[in-house]
Specification:
The protein is mainly alpha-helical. The chain has helices at 3-30, 56-71, 75-100, 109-129, 149-169, 176-194, 198-218, 227-244, 250-254, 256-275, 285-291, 296-318, and strands at 136-137, 144-145. It has one domain (3-246). Belongs to the glycosyltransferase 4 family. MraY subfamily.
Length: 320
Amino acid sequence: MEVKTVTVAMAAAFLLAVAMSPLAIPVLRRLKFGQHVRSEGPQTHLKKKGTPTMGGIVILLAAAVSALRFAGNSPELAVLLVAAFGFGLVGFLDDYLKILFRRSLGLTARQKLFGQLLAAAAVCIMLARLGHDTSIAVPMTSISVDGGWWLYAPFLIFLFLGMSNAINFADGVDGLLAGLASVAFGAFVVLALLRSEPVNAVFAAAMVGALLGFLVFNAHPAKMFMGDVGSLGVGGGFVASAALLKAELLSLLVGGVFVVEMLSVVLQVVSFKTRGKRIFKMSPLHHHFELSGWSEWQVVVAFWALGLACAALGLAVSFR
């Protein structure tokens, strides 16, 4: 597939997201789909209360329309869309319950986990029917483990759960996740082109375009948030893309900032429960820097730069 097609798919998704967002914002406002803000969070975030959320629907729709137009109907694209929309559906339910009951928590942890397990299991079944390679390659080594689906399915499900929630944790500052995710998917565009995976290249490019189009309205001060429907949907698409590229472990490096955000939450919880002390002023990590006096833009720019470095390092490692 020509680079031109991938570029056009990215541009189309960008334009779709830019066109859809101004229409979605007033609709979400009329439906009273406003953001609920945690009272224990940074005080500067209290003014964000009521900002339209669930804008992730725009990202998923724009990316899907563009990908279907330029990649066509294929089993690989079906896997990618089921992953993105399956996890997005779990996020949608979570967002909707938050709005319905006017609280900062929607689905319970068990309910959300169950929904994510179902979506991940569905993707595994689809991959199995495609005869997907079950080997797990360790980057920068010649090590490759293949225990068949008995090993690969639990591994991939764990990766889906871990990375989708890690990406969700990164959605806490205006523009942060949209920028980070566009960089990570951008790395997958390059990787897919180099590995002659045209469908994946178009899908990843469409996600980049949709995320950047959404970022126009999500940059500080945000006019709309993506909500869990967006963050979980992006997470599902990201892991599915990594699986089809056989870059499962590499995705942990490409999405290194997401991993760091997740680890900051885990370390904070473990430290508080075992020692009664917090390591960070607040987790996820981006909130720690906010409470340390950094402005939102300083946090975003610093994390974007780190995300770009992780993506570049991931690509460098994949070439070895």
